Amino acid sequence: MSGFANNKITSLQYILINSGLQVSVFFLALPRILFEHAGTDGWISLIIGWFITVIASLAVIKVMSRQPDGTLLDLLTRYGGKWAGRAAAIVLFLYLLYFAYSCLIQTTLITKEWLLPQTSAYLIILMLLIPTYVIAISGIRIIGRYAEITYLLSLWIPFVYLLPLKEAHWLHLLPIAGEGWRPISAGVPFGLYCFLGFVTTFILYPFIQNKRQASKAMTISNTLTLLLHLFVTMVCYVYFSPDEIDTYNEPAINVLRIIEFKFVERIEVIYIAFYLLIFSLGWIPALYMCAYCTNWLTGMQSERNHFRALWLMLAVGSCFFMPSLHQNENMERLFLRVGIGVEYVFPIILLMCIWLLDRFSQRKKA
Asked: Is the peptide bond before 175 cis (omega within 30 degrees of 0)?
């Protein structure tokens, strides 16, 4: 396997990789999804989801602090034997592959709808996979640098969302919690949905240069994700009326259609073209970590061949099967259920088990 010393990433790169996984394709439909379940109080569900995410992600950091020079796979092998490590590698591989595939398909469908309606979906996927190969084949350090460049090039995007506020109606947000806390609690699982991705810390942790700052970096990353989601969700809520917002599949795009410049006719098209860079932060790190898991299982010295095989599987498989919009929505619902179990429930249970095992070992030695 690749040495961790030769692939270190800075705390900033870790923050941006983790936030990029969270602020990817699902970002565009989030205002509608939250509104459907929590109404205009969906922003409260988002904040509650952030609070739960911080707790779960700190549990991940606490677990990994027991194995600072290894991944979760090494940690479970140490505590539960080789079969526990192998089972974790298989589960993480399948989960991250599903994560990456969902991001890739959603990006393809959005690109086809808004940018390239006459281009076949297979060709769009192939065009997305070519730069993916160039970046991911070079290792996690290059992925971290790519995340830095992507965020730097995307700094103008939040300022664009300030323009629709000239026609905002802040009364749309009132009354706060007007229907009670039941709708808000119903929206919390979907608030958690937009924070999925931090489980990659189970693999990224040994690559971080300054592990003492890992908890702080994780909290900053989740807070950055919250601010981005909250900002765009609030803009959509105050611009669209409550009777209108759920009629748009991606309100985060539709809200930009009112912006007009003399030199640009459709700002949302430029926005999507630039946002493809952020989309890619959803599947590029996930695919690399899929290759890491399979490489760990075989005990080889490089993830490159595993990534090539995975890349080829996606490229060829997309030629024979392409999910429709309805099938993609079903994939997202399944991903939400599985994601909550893998990223929120599992780290808490694992932390408790490790704590109990350590206490038992201490008493046995005494």
From this structure: yes
- Choose among 236, 214, 234: nearest CA to 226: 234
| Residue 96, CA distances (Å) to 162, 175, 200, 322, 343 in order | 34, 40, 8, 19, 11
pLDDT at 319: 86
Within 8 A by CB and 6+ apart from 238, the residues are 165, 168, 169, 170, 172, 173
How many angstroms separate the CA atoms of 90 and 83, rounded? Answer: 10
**Residue 286 and residue 99: Cα distance in Å, rounded?**
7
DSSP assignment, residue 174? P
Angle at which helices 11-22 and 214-239 cross, to 10°: 40
From CA 101, how far away is CA 113, in angstroms rounded? Answer: 18
Q: Which tens digits make up the pLDDT trace of 90-120?
A: 999 999 999 999 999 989 988 998 888 899 9
Q: Token pair 């919690």 is at which residue?
A: 177
Location of structure tokens 């080829």? 312
Contact (CB, 8 A) for 105 and 331: yes
Residues constituting the chain: 366
SS3 9: strand
> How many other C-beta atoms can be found within 10 angstroms of the C-beta atom of residue 366?
5
Neighbours of 76 (CB within 10 A): 24
Half-sphere exposure of 278 (CA within 13 A, CB side): 24
pTM beyond 0.85: the answer is yes
Distance between CA 92 and CA 104 in Å, rounded? 18
Grouping H, G, I as helix, E, B as strand and the rest as coil, residue 176 is coil
C-beta of residue 62 within 8 angstroms of C-beta of residue 54: no
Q: What is the DSSP string of 38-104?
A: HGGGHHHHHHHHHHHHHHHHHHHHHHHTTSTTS-HHHHHHHHH-HHHHHHHHHHHHHHHHHHHHHHH
Of 153, 94, 101, the closest CA to residue 129 belongs to 101
Taking only the tens place, the pLDDT of each residue in 280-335 is: 999 999 999 999 999 999 887 678 899 999 999 999 998 888 888 788 888 888 88
